Amino acid sequence: MQAARFDLLQRMPVFGAMREDALRLLLERAREREAKAGAHFFRENDPADSMFVIESGRVAVVKGWRDEAYVLRRLGPGDCFGEMALMDLASRSASVLVEQDCTAIEIGSADLLQLFEHDPEQFALIQMNIGREVCRRLRALDELLFQERKGGTPLAAEILFRADGK
User: Nearest 5°: phi and psi at 108?
Assistant: First the structure.
């Protein structure tokens, strides 16, 4: 199982250009999290100190507004979520709802501290990679907002559920 996890991380931009020993150190400390469909990995505004890499299953990133929950994106194997927590140390900005039974690798801030103590250069690299991933998402969102404001295709917001059950 460790070999498959190692291969998965090596293919992801967040872990790009990291040395084998650094990735192995992270995997040794990481935890496996399993969640059934309908459960949450976390909810919006929960305290945050870890990110997750999906090994199997599907999740929806969901943002609440006016007693409704809107799906921002759907993620599957090889995708990560929660990485902003490792950069800004703020509470969760959205909920992550499991749509299909899921297994994920959880990497926490304490794991990154261990990496920093082992190899500050590799720590800096993963921080830069996470920053790049967050920037890619921000650029995509900026473009969507621009297109919507200029009369293009309106932003598609899928309402997942309403507080009143309708």
Answer: -100, 170
Residues 20-78: tens digit of each pLDDT: 999 999 999 999 999 999 999 999 999 999 999 999 999 999 998 888 888 988 999 99
Q: Using N-to-C axis directions, what is the helix angle for 109-118 and 120-149, rounded to 10°?
A: 130
Report helix, strand or coil for 153.
coil
Q: What are phi and psi of 117, to 5 degrees?
A: -65, -30
Rounded (10°) CA dihedral 14, 16, 21, 27: 30
What are the φ/ψ torsions at residue 50 (nearest 5 degrees)?
-155, 165
Q: So what's the pLDDT on residue 103?
A: 98
Domains of the chain from N-terminus onward: 2-162 (2.60.120.10)
CA distances from 94 to 18, 25, 128 (A): 28, 29, 22
**What is the bridge-based pairing of β-strands 31-35 and 95-108?**
antiparallel
Alpha carbon separation from 129 to 23, 132, 133 (Å, rounded): 13, 5, 6
Whether this prediction's pTM lies above 0.85 is answered by yes
Which residues have C-beta within 8 Å of that of residue 135, sequence separation ≥ 6?
none
